[in-house]
Design a protein that fits this description.
By secondary structure, the chain is an alpha/beta fold. It contains 12 helices and 17 strands. The protein is elongated, with a radius of gyration of 26 Å.
């Protein structure tokens, strides 16, 4: 009888050990304003966050959990964390200690497993805000009527959210960041335009956070760049999307919107990140010019992309993309192709193709703003100077156009925000008055 009881106790202990949750991976990303640490788990957990001073430490106690990976490989440079160590607490619990080199505002939460990812414990370390004398661009009637047009360029996904994954493990987040950076570089060279990258590195930003950054930076346009996947690898072609408040314009549009909106499940959005006033605002969105501008501007980008690659649809489609729900900023989402398609995946991974796609996006946006510049901008001021418009035809050169209208080449280029010599058939130029 004694042996039976001993065997039962041992079996219970072994079962308890088996039931303990394991941390099978720990990942870290540095963003401009915070550091995110993600603990990948084999199941749900309970945890506590403890702050200690002298020296400054952050302690995370996780109940009935074992660490089955190494913390020593985490790259802590450029983060407020100087060291991470772990230990066992009260026999069954995991204790993780972060030795801090700078003050932060820590927040932690758990995420339940979903179709995109397993159970996770997320620790966000927000930098303490520093007072700064730097100023941001403000669209004010009091300033000189020659401000830049601000283009917010959003590379989709990032950090723990890789986005779609294609053949040879090509990740959407890597491809679209390269394209976004090239679009920004092109606008940097254009007089009268100012690009701003929503995501400048490999880190995650919530969908609402992306919109908020565009608004904070006073953007005249928000363009989100993606390279998504579909259930069938045969699906191919580039697309441009605008917001829909009445349902998707196609099955594919609905499917892609659902995929993109699920990014917050991967990135982890706490309750405080949820929208609380958008529903009422969106009811009036169709009564404003924002959506109309998005559709027309998107059409310009789609037309330019048609010269670079095959289109998935010949018109701008609409769906309920959460990242596009800015009622006061024209917003479009560009699908540069299907990374799930072997041929398009190979192209999207090519630097030369990424640059071609970036040039098409840049040209389409620029086409719209040169024709419809926001009031108070340098481009609008140039247009008001009475210069006539000229549509570039095959065989035209900038020097030839300047000579034809008896204006200097430098004046023609400056007036149209052109830094090089490349022009395209169909492009509209404003001819400056002499």
């Amino acid at each position: 009888m004694g042996r039976t009881w001993i065997g039962a106790i041992l079996a219970l202990l072994l079962t308890s050990t088996t039931w303990a949750v394991e941390v099978h991976d720990v990942r870290l990303w540095r963003a401009p304003d915070h550091t995110r640490i993600v603990f990948d788990l084999t199941g749900p957990v309970e945890h506590k966050l403890i702050l200690l001073d002298n020296p400054s430490r952050i302690v995370v106690d996780v109940e009935d959990t074992r660490l089955k990976t190494s913390l020593s490989d985490l790259k802590l440079d450029k983060t407020p964390v100087s060291r991470i160590r772990s230990g066992v607490r009260e026999g069954d619990d995991l204790r993780v200690v972060l030795d801090m080199g700078a003050k932060v505002d820590p927040r932690s939460f758990v995420l339940k497993a979903n179709q995109q990812a397993g159970d996770r414990l997320v620790l966000d370390l927000y930098d303490k805000k520093k007072t700064s004398s730097s100023t941001t661009v403000k669209k004010s009637v009091k300033q000189s009527a020659k401000r830049d047009i601000i283009v917010a360029i959003d590379a989709g996904h990032g950090g723990e959210d890789p986005g779609a994954i294609g053949p040879k493990r090509r990740r959407e987040k890597v491809v679209v960041l390269a394209i976004a950076r090239e679009v920004a570089r092109l606008f940097e060279a254009d007089k009268g335009f100012k690009p701003t990258l929503i995501r400048s590195g490999d880190y995650y930003i919530s969908l609402k956070g992306r919109r908020d950054l565009a608004r904070k930076r006073q953007a005249d346009l928000f363009v989100s760049i993606h390279a998504d996947a579909f259930k069938r690898k045969e699906a191919h072609g580039a697309s441009v999307y605008a917001l829909s408040t009445r349902g998707a314009t196609s099955t594919a549009a609905r499917y892609l919107a659902q995929r993109e909106n699920a990014a917050d499940l991967v990135g982890g959005v706490s309750l405080s990140d949820k929208d609380d006033v958008l529903a009422g605002v969106l009811a009036d969105l169709s009564m404003t010019s924002t959506l109309d501008t998005s559709l027309k501007l998107g059409g310009k980008v789609l037309g330019r992309m048609d010269n670079v690659t095959k289109l998935h649809k010949e018109r701008v489609e609409q769906a309920g993309f959460a990242v596009l729900k800015s009622p006061d900023i024209p917003s479009i989402l560009v699908e540069t192709g299907f990374i799930s398609n072997p041929e398009e995946s190979r192209k999207l991974a090519s630097s030369s193709y990424q640059k071609k796609m970036a040039r098409a996006i840049h040209a389409g946006i620029k086409d719209w703003f040169l024709a419809h510049p926001p009031s108070g901008t340098l481009i609008a001021w140039q247009k008001q100077q009475g210069g006539r418009q000229y549509v570039i035809a095959r065989g035209d050169t900038l020097s030839g156009i300047a000579q034809r209208f008896n204006v200097s080449l430098s004046s023609l280029k400056s007036h149209n925000g052109i830094s090089g010599s490349k022009i395209m058939v169909g492009q509209k130029l404003v001819i400056p008055t002499t």
